[in-house]
Amino acid sequence: MPQTFALALDLKDDAALIADYERYHRQIPEAIRASLTESGILRMEIYRWQNRLFMVMVTTDSFSFENKVRLDSDNPDVQAWEELMWRFQQPLPGTKPGEKWQLMSRIFELNA
Fold first, then answer.
1. Residue ranges per domain, the chain?
2. Strand ranges, E, within 1-112
3. HSE value, Cβ hemisphere, 13 Å, CA-based, for 102
4. How far is CA 71 from CA 11, 40, 41, 61, in A?
5. Can you give the pLDDT of all 112 residues of the chain as single tens digits?
6. Is-above-0.70 flag for pTM?
7. For residue 40, how many other CB atoms are within 10 A of its CB?
8. 3 state DSSP class of 6
9. Closest by CA position to 51, among listed 15, 104, 25
10. In contact, 57 and 7? CB cutoff 8 Å
11. Beta carbons within 8 Å of 105's beta carbon, 6+ residues apart
């Protein structure tokens, strides 16, 4: 059974940087797309409100963040992409230095 995760992150509050970030995400590099699917991500969507991002990931039942971190750390294309994206991103308040996307807790589900 697929798993669903929700994550949050902020962009730097700069209209030009936000526009560039969205431009990069209109057509991500094939190597990045391949790394996402290789890690077990079936579907990914990112939404934005002002400078706040909200990501929904639907993954295989065997997906794990630990495995994704391991795969990403061995992939120079992903490392270059993450370094580029960090130019636009900033951590959420209360996160540890260097932390990016923060896993959110589900507090409501209509069809539960």
1. 3-94
2. 3-11, 41-49, 52-59, 89-90, 102-103
3. 18
4. 25, 11, 13, 17
5. 999 999 999 999 999 999 999 999 999 999 999 999 999 999 999 999 999 999 999 999 999 999 999 999 999 999 999 999 999 999 999 999 889 999 999 999 998 7
6. yes
7. 19
8. strand
9. 15
10. yes
11. none
Query: How far apart (Å, rounded) are the C-alpha atoms in residues 28 and 76?
Result: 15
Backbone angles phi, psi at 79, to 5 degrees: -60, -40
Within 8 A by CB and 6+ apart from 22, the residues are 48
Q: Burial, 83: exposed, middle or buried (Cβ in 10 Å; 0-12, 13-18, 19+)?
A: exposed
Q: Which CATH class is domain 3-94?
A: alpha beta
C-alpha 94, offset from chain centre: 18
